[in-house]
Amino acid sequence: MDAQSQVVGRLRSVFLTGVTLPEQFRQAQLNKLMALIKENEQRILDALHKDLAKPKFEAVLSEIDIAINELHFAISNLSSWMKPEYVEKNLATKLDECFVRREPLGVVLIIGAWNYPLQLTLNPLIGAIAAGNCAVIKPSEVSPATESLLVELIPKYLSQDCYAVVQGGPEETQALLKNCFDHIFYTGSQKVARVIMQAASVHLTPVTLELGGKSPCMIFGGVNIRAAVHRLAWAKFFNAGQSCVAPDYVLCSPATRDAMLPELKVTLEEFYTKNPQASPDFCRIVSPRHWSRLMELLKRSNGKVIVGGESDEEDKYIAPTVVVDVDEDDALMQEEIFGPILPIVTVDSVEKGIEFLNAREKPLALYVFSDDSSLVNKVLESTSSGGFCSNDGIIHSGLPSFPFGGVGASGLGSYHGRWGFETFSHRKACMLRGWALERLNGLRYPPYQENKLNWLCVCACTCVHVIGSTEM
């Protein structure tokens, strides 16, 4: 605790010197983070394979390239993000300079996740650096190889005066949370998020919580079954289902289910061969504890396993598994699965499906597969979710111009691109006023009069569109 307090105190002292404020410093740190990734790509791939048996294809696509794209986006746009934003004025402020200034929050804490241990640690850090903050970074100990690599590399590439990495488990995290930060960014489970919110409340620290939940995939109306199953299977079993935006379950009609099942069997064999355990393209469960949790869910389910079901505890392997005859009270429907198990729930109509969704917590993502655009729009307008994508899965989460985040139980706040910069910035309302028109100011001074009030109301409510410079 004392050592961590010293780290936080040291970073706060450095932040107060203003070293992180200039754009040149921020750009330099973002470029150094880019170099960290590019110069150590093979070591990163090795660590990800050691932690999760991630194939190179998935590791590059979902970890390395996403972080690099995020960096390119931030580096290209930082100058415009930092400029003051001039606002509309009323008659009372016509001669004033009125703008919103983005300022860094200060010293922030970033707690990474184990399922994408590079991307989900570095992407929020990119936003924090771009916004001009100092940061304490806590990678997930559940993916120890990547954690150790980040602990080694970040101090080598980034300013040690402004950024510190803390290694350890729950005890170290709890000790960190006793310190006063200016923002806490956490990616992980709802259970831990509640602990973080409680700790943050002591210091009135704002939080961003990137959580998850049971993201559904609705399939209704006419649809290309083969294409739909290929996209669904890829999105679900990518990273062995250990994605916060993975389709958690399918909601469809009995007829659609019956059409899908043969295609699912064929598709999974095409993707991972008849023996997925021997496939180099299929990940492993991150730890024995997570493997046991998934197998317990499968054991308690009353559904029928149609595809997969095989497992190997020593290898932390669970085959791509499809379960049917799953009702809403089934064990697989009580919590986020976060693994390679896909339940299929049937309802009679899209209206019943919407009712089903709206009776539950808001998911991080909602997917609708259908050729009927009016049906897609009906679901879009009738439901609430962190993100929405039609006729594909998880792909929306890689676009840096999109805000990424949940709603309700699936998260609080968002990031990626400009949204990450805004998350780690304070938007200060600034008015620069001179001494002119002091006679008009007499309208607001005592003794108060009714006609003065009337004039002030007119001045305050009448907006004047002012086109001003975007630079100070």
Automatic annotation (TrEMBL):
* GO terms under biological process: aldehyde metabolic process
State the superkingdom.
Eukaryota
Boundaries of each Aldehyde dehydrogenase domain copy? 22-429
Q: What's a Pfam family in this record?
A: Aldedh
Gene3D superfamilies from the entry?
A: Aldehyde Dehydrogenase, Chain A, domain 1, Aldehyde Dehydrogenase, Chain A, domain 2
Query: GO MF annotations for this entry?
Result: 3-chloroallyl aldehyde dehydrogenase activity; aldehyde dehydrogenase (NAD+) activity
Keywords from the named record = NAD, Oxidoreductase
What is the active site of this protein? E210, C244
Q: Which GO terms describe its cellular component?
A: cytoplasm
UniProt lists the family membership as follows: Belongs to the aldehyde dehydrogenase family.
Official protein name in the record: Aldehyde dehydrogenase
Its gene name is aldh3b1
